[in-house]
Specification:
heterodimer; A: about 350 residues; alpha/beta; Rossmann fold; 2 domains; 5-stranded mixed β-sheet; globular; B: alpha/beta; two-stranded antiparallel sheet; binds thiamine diphosphate; binds magnesium ion
Chain lengths: ~350, ~350
C-alpha cells in the first residue's frame, strides 16, 4: 500500500506515483505536518499552536509557516522564551478545555520543561484519579550537523519514554506524521511528538482528508526472513538503505518502524523475531538506558527463546555531540554501520 | 518598537565623556574595532563552507563588551551566550584559538568540541559559554557566590539578551543575588529581538532596567551603542560589586545588524523592518567612538589607520592559524566526557 511504503528518495516516489494512475498526492514531511495542524485547527477551534517563533517568516522550519495569517496570532501564538512556565500554561489551557500544540525548534529546550512535563502533565490524570486529563501535544525537533554541538542536537526521546503518563511518538514518513499528529491532538493525553529535522524534505503519499494513524502501532516497512532491524525516526531510511547491500550478501532483512516508542508495539517486534531469530535495533539517541535498551529488554523478557544470536544495538556513542566535523563524523553513523553490524552478527554465529 | 521611553536612570553623557581619559578611550576604540573586524572576517570566510559552526554575530553591539570588560581583571568572571564572540575578545581571549574552535580544530579554545556557541578561556575568567537562553545567568551568580564564600573580591558578569529576560532563571537569579548581596553584574544586551520575535511580542514593556527595583538592586538603562555610557554604568556596578555592595542590573540598548544566526542580514527575509534597521545603522558604535576620539583629539586619523592595519593582520593570522591547525583525531570523540583528575 502506498502509505506504508518508505520512499528513500524523491525519484523513487515519482516512479511510484507514475505507477499509480490514480494520481497519488505527494507531500513533504513538513507539508504533511503543517496540513495536519491546519486541518485540525479548522475542524476544532480548541486546537491552537504555541511556541517561540511559530509566526516568524521561517515558521519552525516551515512546519507552521503562514498559519498565523490564516488563524490569527492568538491561535498561532509566539511566546516568551520561558519554556517551563509556558509548558505549565499549555497544561492549564489543555485541562481547561483547549488543545494546545506546543512547538520547540530544538529538542534541547525540553529539559527546561522537565518539571511541568514530568511532574505535572504526565501525572495529573493519575493524581486526580482520572478526573482531569491533559490533552497536550509537545512537538520538538532534533537537529544534526554543521557544528550544532552539545546543546542543539540532542535526541532525548528515552527520557520521556521512561515516564508513565506520557506517550512518545516518532513518525518517519509524511503519511505517518499527518496521521499521528491528528491522533495526538485527539488523544487526550500528553503526547511528546518528536521529529528529526532531516525528515522534513522526505516526500511520500499523503491523502488530502483528515485521517489517523494509531498511536502504539508499529509497521513493517519491509518483510524479510533473516534478521529484524527495528529503526526509529530517520533511521528507518538508513535501515531501508541497508537492505540492498545486505541482500547482496544473502541476508534478507525485515525492517520495522515502531512509529510510537511509548506505548511500544511489542507484538510486531516479537512476531518478527519469531520468524527471523535475530534483532538489530537502530536508534538516533544514546545507548545507555536508551530506546534500544528498552526494546532489547522487552525482547529478552518475552522472546528470548526465539533468538539465535545476541541482540545488537546501533546507537550514538555515550558522549555529548561534538562540534568539529571530524568528531561529528565519528559520532554519527548511517546505513553503512547498520550493514556492518548485521554482517558482524552473522559472522559471529 | 520602543514604546515605553521612561527611563529608570540615565547616565549623563557629557560628564561621562569628560571623565574618561584619552588612553581609556583609545583602548575602548581598539576593542570595539577588533570585535567588528573579527565578525567581519567571519562574514568574509564563511562562504568557504569550511567553518562548520553556527555563528551568531554581534556587529552593532560591540561597545557593550568593550565598555564592560575594560573594568574587569583577569580573575573576574564573565558568562556569555550563543552571541559571545565580542565578550571573549573584550575579555582578552586569544582570537587564534577562537577561530580554531570555529574551524573545529584541536587547537581551538574548546578543542573543537564546542564550536562558536561554547567558547571558553578559564585562565581568563571565561569558564564557558552556553547556548541555552538564560542558562548562564544563574551560573554567573554561582561564580559570584564562590567569590563571596572564598572571600575574594572577584566579580562575575552575566551577559544575556532581552530574550533571556523571559526565562525564569533570570528572575530566580536576580532574587538570589540580591538576597545574598553577591558580586554580580547582570548585563542585558537589549537588541529588542530574540531570533525574529520582537520584544513587544514577549514582554509587557521594554524597560528591562526597571525590573531591578523589584529585586532590590540598582538598575540602569544606557545607550549600548555609546561606549562612554556603558563604561560609566559598568564602572559603577563593578566597583560596587567589588566593594561588597551587591549586584546591579544594566540594560544596554542596542541592535544587531545581521540575522540572528549566520553572516547575512535578515531584513530582506522580512524578519525586521528596513527603516528600523537603517536607523540603527546610523548609530554605529565604531563610527561614534571614532568620531569621539577625533573630536577629543585622543587619536589621529593616521593612528587609526595604523590600528586598523594591525587588527586586520591579527585577523588574518587568526584565520590562518585556525585553518592550518590539525583536526582532532576521531578517537578524541571519547575524551573529556568525565573529569579524571579527582582526588
Ligand atoms: C532555552 C532556549 N530556548 C530557546 C532557544 C532558541 N534561541 C536561541 S537564541 C534565541 C534568542 C535569544 O534572544 P536574546 O536572549 O535576546 O539574545 P540575542 O540573540 O538577541 O543576542 C532563542 C530563542 C535556546 N537556545 N534556548
Ligand atoms: Mg535579543
Amino acid at each position: 500500500m502506498p502509505w506504508t511504503k518508505v520512499y528513500v528518495d524523491k525519484s523513487e516516489f515519482e516512479k511510484a506515483a507514475q505507477l499509480q494512475k490514480e494520481g497519488l498526492r505527494g507531500l513533504t514531511f513538513r507539508e504533511a505536518l503543517k496540513e495536519a495542524t491546519s486541518q485540525m485547527m479548522e475542524k476544532d477551534e480548541r486546537v491552537f499552536v504555541m511556541g517561540e517563533g511559530v509566526d516568524d517568516p521561517g515558521g519552525i522550519f516551515g512546519s507552521t509557516a503562514g498559519l498565523h495569517k490564516k488563524f490569527g496570532k492568538n491561535r498561532v501564538m509566539d511566546l516568551p522564551i520561558a519554556e517551563n512556565g509556558m509548558t505549565g500554561v499549555a497544561i492549564g489551557a489543555a485541562m481547561a478545555g483547549m488543545r494546545p500544540i506546543f512547538v520547540h525548534m530544538r529538542m534541547d529546550f525540553l529539559p527546561m520543561c522537565m518539571d511541568q512535563i514530568v511532574n505535572h502533565a504526565a501525572k495529573w490524570y493519575y493524581m486526580t484519579g482520572g478526573r482531569t486529563n491533559v490533552p497536550l501535544v509537545v512537538r520538538s525537533i532534533i537537529g544534526k550537523g554543521w557544528g550544532s554541538a552539545a546543546q542543539h542536537s540532542q535526541a532525548l526521546q528515552a527520557l520521556f519514554m521512561h515516564i508513565p503518563g506520557l506517550k512518545v511518538v516518532m513518525p518517519s514518513t509524511p503519511y505517518d506524521v499527518k496521521g499521528l499528529m491528528v491522533s495526538s491532538i485527539q488523544d487526550g493525553n500528553p503526547v511528546m511528538f518528536i521529529e528529526h529535522r532531516w525528515l522534513y524534505e522526505q516526500i511520500g503519499y499523503v491523502p488530502e482528508e483528515i485521517y489517523t494513524v494509531p498511536i502504539g502501532k508499529g509497521i513493517v516497512r519491509r518483510q524479510g526472513k533473516d534478521v529484524t532491524v527495528v529503526a526509529v525516526s530517520n533511521m528507518v531510511y538508513e535501515a531501508m538503505k541497508a537492505v540492498q547491500p545486505l541482500e547482496a550478501e544473502g541476508i534478507d532483512v525485515e525492517v520495522i518502524d515502531p512509529r510510537t516508542i511509548k506505548p511500544l508495539d511489542e507484538d510486531i517486534i516479537i512476531e518478527s523475531i519469531k520468524k527471523t531469530g535475530r534483532l538489530v535495533i537502530v536508534d538516533i539517541g544514546w545507548k545507555t538506558c536508551g530506546v534500544s535498551a528498552e526494546i532489547a529488554a522487552v525482547v529478552a523478557e518475552k522472546a528470548f527463546k526465539y533468538l539465535k544470536a545476541p541482540v545488537k544495538r546501533v546507537t550514538l556513542p555515550d558522549v555529548p555531540t561534538p562540534n568539529s566535523p571530524v568528531l561529528e563524523d565519528a559520532y554519527y553513523f548511517d546505513y553503512k554501520r547498520i550493514v556492518s553490524s548485521v554482517k558482524e552478527m552473522f559472522r559471529e554465529i | 518598537m520602543v514604546k515605553n521611553k521612561k527611563k529608570t536612570k540615565t547616565v549623563s553623557k557629557k560628564s561621562a565623556v569628560n571623565s574618561i581619559s584619552a588612553g581609556v578611550l583609545r583602548k575602548l576604540y581598539e576593542t570595539i574595532l577588533r570585535i567588528r573586524r573579527f565578525e567581519e572576517k567571519i562574514i568574509e570566510v564563511y562562504p568557504g563552507q569550511d567553518m562548520k559552526t553556527p555563528v551568531h554575530l554581534c556587529i552593532g553591539e560591540e561597545a557593550i563588551a568593550a565598555g564592560v570588560c575594560i573594568h574587569l581583571r583577569k580573575d573576574d568572571y564573565i558568562f556569555s551566550t550563543h552571541r559571545s564572540h565580542g565578550h571573549s575578545i573584550a575579555k582578552g581571549s586569544d582570537m587564534k584559538r577562537m577561530m580554531a574552535e570555529f574551524y573545529g580544530r584541536k587547537t581551538g579554545c574548546s578543542k573543537g568540541k564546542g564550536g562558536s556557541m561554547h567558547l571558553c578561556d578559564p585562565e581568563n575568567g571565561i569558564l564557558g559559554s552556553t547556548a541555552i537562553v538564560g542558562g548562564g545567568i544563574p551560573i554567573a551568580v554561582g561564580a559570584g557566590l564562590a567569590s563571596f564564600m572564598k572571600g575574594t573580591d572577584t566579580v562575575s558578569v552575566a551577559f544575556f539578551g532581552d530574550g533571556a529576560m523571559d526565562e525564569g532563571t533570570f528572575h530566580e537569579s536576580m532574587n538570589f543575588a540580591s538576597l545574598k548581596k553577591l558580586p554580580v553584574i547582570f548585563l542585558c544586551e537589549n537588541n529588542f529581538y530574540a531570533t525574529n520575535s520582537p520584544q513587544s511580542a514577549r514582554q509587557p514593556h521594554d524597560n528591562i532596567a526597571k525590573r531591578a527595583g523589584g529585586y532590590g538592586m540598582p538598575g540602569i538603562q544606557v545607550d549600548g551603542n555609546d561606549v562612554t555610557a556603558v563604561y560609566e554604568a559598568a564602572k559603577e556596578a563593578v566597583d560596587r560589586a567589588r566593594a561588597g555592595g551587591g549586584p546591579s542590573l544594566i540594560e544596554c540598548r542596542t541592535y544587531r545588524w545581521k540575522g540572528h544566526v549566520g553572516p547575512d542580514c535578515d531584513v530582506e527575509k522580512g524578519c525586521r523592518p528596513r527603516d528600523e534597521h537603517d536607523m540603527w545603522l546610523k548609530k554605529c558604535p565604531v563610527e561614534r567612538t571614532r568620531k569621539l576620539l577625533l573630536d577629543k583629539k585622543a587619536m589621529s586619523e593616521e593612528e587609526m589607520k595604523r590600528l586598523l592595519d594591525k587588527i586586520n593582520k591579527e585577523m588574518d593570522e587568526a584565520v590562518e592559524f585556525g585553518r592550518s591547525s590539525p583536526f582532532p583525531d576521531a578517537s578524541e570523540l571519547f575524551d573529556d566526557v568525565y573529569f579524571s583528575g579527582g582526588k
